[in-house]
Amino acid sequence: MPTFIGHAVAGITLGLTISQKQQWLRIGILSILCSVAPDIDAIGFKLGIPYQHWLGHRGFSHSIVFAAALGLIASLFVQEKSTKRRCLLFGLLFASGLVHDVLDAMTNGGLGIAFFSPFSNSRYFLPWRPIEVSPLSLRRFLTPRGISVMKSEFVWVMVPSLCFMALTAWYRMEKWYRKDREA
């Protein structure tokens, strides 16, 4: 899996795309939470739940159903008057949870992602897997292997996220600039 940092950056990147000025912090925090929440299943290791179990690591909490439920629950924490904005917000928070799963499916380790749990516990990877899988323990992360993981994550998660953020900011500035010129 990418690290907590990589998942959070991917989540905030999505959160910034629809956030309005008065709600950017709340939506940003919710999108980060949705993007890191699937790894709550790591507690299963301490509880003796086997990795390959449907509740194990990269099991149900990495499914499309979980991402949708998480997006729905998280969207209740933001008040939106219009149905269009509520649907857009749900879509963003759902995507924030789902991007976690996609990034994990792009790693070079583990058993794969149970995208279709609870209906199927089959695990999948994407055909293209350039991201180094992160160690789960902090002690193992602070080794040369951890540095290798951070380099991989920088290239495959951070740089694309920063580029997307820059494009979003440019688009918004252009939109505001046009609006000011028309006024």
Outline type: globular
The ordered string of helix (H) and strand (E) elements is HHHHHHH
Number of helices: 7
Q: What is the percentage of strand-forming residues?
A: under 5%
Q: Termini separation (Å)?
A: 48 Å
Largest sheet: none
Index terms:
single chain; mainly alpha; 61% helix; 7 helices; 183 residues
Can you walk me through this structure?
This protein is mainly alpha-helical. It has one domain. 61% of the residues lie in helices and 0% in strands. The protein has seven helices and no strands. Helix 2 packs parallel to helix 5. It is globular. It starts with a helix and ends with a helix.
Give the gist of this structure:
With 183 residues, this protein is mainly α. The chain has one domain.
Topology:
Layout lengths: L3 H15 L5 H13 L6 H5 L16 H12 L7 H23 L32 H4 L2 H39 L1
